[in-house]
Amino acid sequence: MTTVPYVLDDRRQALRATAADLAPELRAHALALDADPDDVKAIADLAAFDLIRALTTPVDFAACPLRIDGFDYPPGSCLDEAVCVVELAAGDAGVLLAGPGPGLSGVLVDNLADQAQRERFYRAVADGATWTFFAVTEPGRGSDAGAMDTELRRDGADGYRLHGAKRYIGNGARGRLGVVFGRTGPGPLSIRAALLEVPAEGFDATALDMVGLRGAGLGELRFDGVAVPEHALLGRQLPVTRRGLWGAMRVFHQMRAQVAALAIGTGTALVELVAGERPSAPRLDEFADRLRSGRHLVYAAAAALDADPDDGHRASAAKASATALGREISRWAIGALDPVALVEQPLLEKWARDVLAFEFMEGTTNIQRRHLAREYLKRRAPVGPAGGRP
To answer: Assign residue 198 a region: left if phi > 0, alpha if psi is -120 to 50, beta otherwise?
Structure first.
């Protein structure tokens, strides 16, 4: 697998430096939010969230375009976001994931929504105090979108009723606007995404108890005949093959690159913690070097998605590699500082829990290996006489 060239020029270096400057404010709230993940009002106004929103909100709906040291940053670049996420996650990934804003739903809206839907979504999150959710994963089904049970049952000529449940949904219990996937029929092309504002009749959300990344606020959503008007279905203006799963896969590709960035950032925080407490710790330089290589892989994966949003195999490779590295660094850090440091250094104990959660976000390592194997086999397949696959 070849890497995709990218440039961390003066423009991106300025962005990186700004994100690094904002990382300490996330860390300042890390332990308090971990102790009480429902207390998100104290973090809603953090400048780090303004930075991420500026990178992910279309110019038409942004309060003002992002400009740093004379450089402009048009929204929509996966690489720009990854550069920020690595630095901010070195502050604290749990707090970063607790922020309000477009989130994953914004990526789907950008790909599938018509203008009226975009207006509805981005006007709602413009206040900087609205959390959003992206609901695909189901009890017993995981994130296998093709096997989902949630239904959008036709209810008259102008709408549907939503029945089913979703689980492990980020910001699920605190979100007030989001996207929910359900099927209108038996086949894969029947899977659709709908914009949903809550509270709504028939909707119920429960926060789940978490061990790591508690700030992410995972929740379970249940739908008992929630009304979904026809105009809330995303992709109505698109071909049937570009409505549901196609949009979900684009979101998964982008999020895998960002999860890899979260893992590299958390690994960086752990290495810096060890360096501050025990500068002569064995393997310190080795892990610092490996983190630099990990950043390169994350940046290359993000650059590849900017070039082709449907080419996600590099993001799968980055996600699998970065999450494994984060776990390895966590175990090493505990040994390097002595297990008693888990009591004396509460951030070490927290990050040791947090880093385990990345494995389960947007597909486990085995799922990423399957993606990579399929890509490898596809590229090895012989080409037919007309240039197509036989």
So the answer is: beta
Residue 249, Cβ density class (10 Å: 0-12 exposed, 13-18 middle, ≥19 buried): middle
Query: For the CA atoms of the chain, what is the radius of gyration?
Result: 21
- One CATH from 1.10.246.130, 1.20.140.10, 3.40.50.2300, 3.30.1360.10 for 245-380: 1.20.140.10
Q: Residue 64 CB: number of other CB atoms within 10 A?
A: 7
With tokens 């249940």, the residue in question is 222
Give per-residue pLDDT as tens, 235-251: 999 999 999 999 999 99
Tell the CATH topology of 130-239.
Butyryl-CoA Dehydrogenase, subunit A; domain 2 (2.40.110)
Picking from 313, 296, 226, 224, the residue whose alpha carbon sits closest to that of residue 261 is 296
From residue 241, alpha-carbon distances to 228, 233, 235 in Å are: 21, 14, 10
Would you say how long the chain is, in residues?
Answer: 390
User: Of 172, 34, 40, 41, nearest to 94 (Cα)?
Assistant: 34
pLDDT value at residue 145? 74
| pLDDT recorded at residue 6 | 87
Predicted pLDDT of residue 146:
76
CA atoms within 13 A on the CB side of 86: 28
The set of residues, in sequence order, having a beta carbon less than 8 Å from that of 176 and lying 6+ positions away, is 124, 130, 131, 132, 197, 198
Which DSSP string corresponds to 105-128? Answer: HHHHHHHH--HHHHHHHHHHHTTS
Tell me, yes or no, if the pTM score tops 0.90. Answer: yes
- Residue 234 tokens, joined: 């995303």
With CA atoms as reference, report the closest residue to 258 among 370, 38, 107, 390.
107
Question: What confidence tier does 384 reach under pLDDT thresholds 50, 70, 90?
Answer: low
356: its two tokens: 């385990």
Per-residue confidence band for 111, with pLDDT thresholds at 50, 70 and 90: very high
Determine the Cα–Cα distance for residues 67 and 59; give it in Å rounded to an integer: 12
Cβ 245 vs Cβ 146: under 8 Å: yes
- Give tens-digit pLDDT for 170-181: 999 999 999 999
For 306, residues 6+ apart whose C-beta sits below 8 A from its C-beta are 77, 78, 79
